[in-house]
């Protein structure tokens, strides 16, 4: 089973890297970050202060960009039929697809804070804290958004619906993400915010694969 | 394709050994729903090892819905669908049969357009842990071995169908549910399919298929589905 899962994961990684979702997400993040000073003004102290919150907000929006098409092709081309009639549980298929998407979108988003952070004049400790908080938090973003994308996979014109349904669930990440970034920058690894952020991701990990599988099964009819 | 190539590869790719324990499938009074309307009702069949069942009927009579119902994708709203060991008569869990012994060929083939043919079939083979020899025999049999670098989006409808059919020999499953298996195939592809299906049934496999025209398994039992009766107009009193 683990070999079959790995084979599936490899294929999902290939599919994710050929989709347009990750390019849209990364492009949006970098462009929006570099345009933010146009709106915020050029006070370097203010920019440095605002950067963690701004980058987290941008990451949350960027994570939403490609999610809507995460499960739809599998449903439309009948790949889901094949998986459903195989020993592989649908929840593992969902987990494979979600983790492949995180590897192709979430992790590069976190890496984007290095150039963006330098642009905003952040210290290296602050950048590293922000990066770590994003590595902890973005899997949760992708997992929750992916599960809601699965709920909407059989609907037409569902992009708007997915965004509206998902954003409220991202509130914990927006609350604890920037605070965790600051705490990690100061070396407080076990303070409340990083732990809450980790809890957000772990909770999503426990729920999202099964929720996605249940939703997709409904659309098989 | 050169003639010689065609002659060299004229054997079905699957193993000659028979499938494991022979299975008997029994449907009693099955009915399926599509969009809230019962489209096929009173379906009875009994299929032993090597048997084939062809579902016929016009558009919209519920052939595909019935096939998807048998596959477990949509609930069968009436009747019983049973599987048993053909020798001992002991019951087989239908969900186990679906997960491990059943292959389904849908009309849209299960293909991703942004993978190449080789990537597609290699990933299927890896997931199913198919031996490399079976995989290469399969590709040769379906005339696909020269195409592995081609993107699926560039394949013709018939080539996509061949690729989808090639998947059936990667896993050793005795029950095949085929939705219009010959759609898009040329005459040579049709000959391959006939040989492929005959081999499957000789090994004790079962085929349940839908068909308008084209491929029909030889000597198959035929079930003609009737047009569904529209629901009665709601009467004044009911409103």
Describe this structure in words.
The complex is a heterodimer of chains A (221) and B (239). Chain A contains 10 helices and no strands. Chain A has 221 residues and is an all-alpha fold. Chain A has one domain. In chain A, helix 1 crosses helix 6, helix 2 packs parallel to helix 6 and helix 3 runs antiparallel to helix 6. The radius of gyration of chain A is 18 Å and the shape is elongated. Chain A starts with a helix and ends with a helix. By secondary structure, chain B is α/β, with parallel strands linked by helices. Chain B contains 7 helices and 9 strands, in the order H-E-E-E-H-E-E-H-E-H-H-H-E-H-E-E. In chain B, the strands form 2 sheets. In chain B, strands 6-7-8-3-9 form a 5-stranded parallel beta sheet, sandwiched between helices. In chain B, a hairpin with a 5-residue loop joins strand 4 and strand 5. Chain B is globular and about 55 Å long. The N terminus of chain B is likely disordered. At the A-B interface, helix 1 and helix 5 of A face helix 3, strand 6 and helix 4 of B.
Task: Output the strand order for the largest sheet of chain B.
Answer: 6-7-8-3-9
Q: CATH superfamily membership of chain B, which one?
A: P-loop containing nucleotide triphosphate hydrolases
Total DSSP helices of chain B:
7
DSSP helix fraction of chain B: 25-40%
Number of strands of chain A: 0
Strand fraction of chain A equals under 5%
Class from secondary-structure proportions of chain B: alpha/beta
β-strand amount of chain B? 15-25%
Number of discrete domains of chain B: 1
CATH topology of chain B: Rossmann fold
Quaternary arrangement of the chains shown?
A: heterodimer
């Amino acid at each position: 089973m683990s070999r079959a899962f790995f084979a599936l994961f490899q294929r999902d990684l290939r599919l994710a890297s050929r989709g347009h979702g990750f390019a849209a997400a990364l492009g949006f993040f970098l462009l929006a970050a570099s345009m933010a000073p146009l709106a915020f003004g050029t006070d370097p102290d203010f920019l440095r202060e605002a950067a963690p919150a701004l980058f987290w907000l941008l990451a949350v929006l960027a994570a939403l960009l490609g999610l809507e098409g995460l499960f739809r092709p599998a449903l439309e081309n009948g790949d889901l039929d094949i998986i459903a009639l195989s020993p592989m549980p649908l929840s593992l298929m969902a987990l494979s697809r979600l983790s492949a998407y995180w590897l192709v979108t979430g992790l590069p988003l976190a890496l984007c804070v290095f150039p963006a952070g330098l642009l905003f004049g952040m210290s290296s400790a602050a950048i590293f804290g922000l990066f770590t908080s994003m590595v902890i938090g973005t899997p949760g973003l992708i997992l929750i958004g992916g599960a809601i994308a699965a709920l909407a996979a059989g609907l037409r014109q569902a992009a708007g619906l997915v965004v509206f349904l998902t954003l409220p669930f991202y509130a914990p990440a927006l609350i604890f993400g920037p605070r965790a970034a600051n705490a990690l920058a100061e070396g407080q690894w076990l303070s409340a915010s990083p732990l809450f952020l980790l809890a957000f991701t772990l909770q999503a990990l426990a729920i999202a694969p099964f929720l996605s599988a249940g939703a997709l099964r409904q659309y098989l009819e | 394709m050169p003639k010689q190539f065609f002659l060299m590869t004229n054997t079905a790719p699957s193993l000659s050994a028979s499938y494991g324990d022979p299975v008997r499938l029994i449907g009693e009074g099955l009915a399926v729903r599509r969009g809230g309307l019962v489209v096929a009702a009173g379906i009875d069949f009994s299929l032993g090892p090597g048997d084939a069942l062809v579902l016929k009927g016009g558009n919209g009579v519920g052939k595909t819905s019935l096939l998807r119902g048998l596959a477990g994708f949509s609930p069968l709203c009436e009747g019983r669908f049973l599987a048993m060991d053909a020798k001992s008569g002991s019951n087989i869990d239908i969900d186990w049969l679906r997960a491990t012994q059943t292959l389904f060929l849908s009309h849209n083939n299960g293909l991703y357009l942004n993978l190449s043919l080789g990537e597609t079939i290699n990933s299927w083979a890896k997931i199913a842990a198919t031996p490399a020899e079976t995989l290469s025999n399969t590709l040769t049999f379906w005339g696909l071995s020269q195409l592995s670098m081609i993107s699926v989006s560039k394949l013709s409808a018939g080539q996509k169908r061949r690729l989808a059919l090639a998947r059936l020999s990667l896993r050793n499953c005795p029950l095949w549910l085929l939705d219009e298996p010959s759609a898009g195939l040329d005459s040579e592809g049709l000959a391959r399919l006939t040989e492929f299906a005959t081999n499957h049934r000789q090994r004790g496999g079962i085929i349940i298929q839908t068909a308008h025209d084209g491929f029909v398994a030889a000597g198959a039992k035929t079930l003609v589905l009737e047009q569904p009766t529209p629901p009665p107009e709601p009467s004044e009193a009911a409103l």
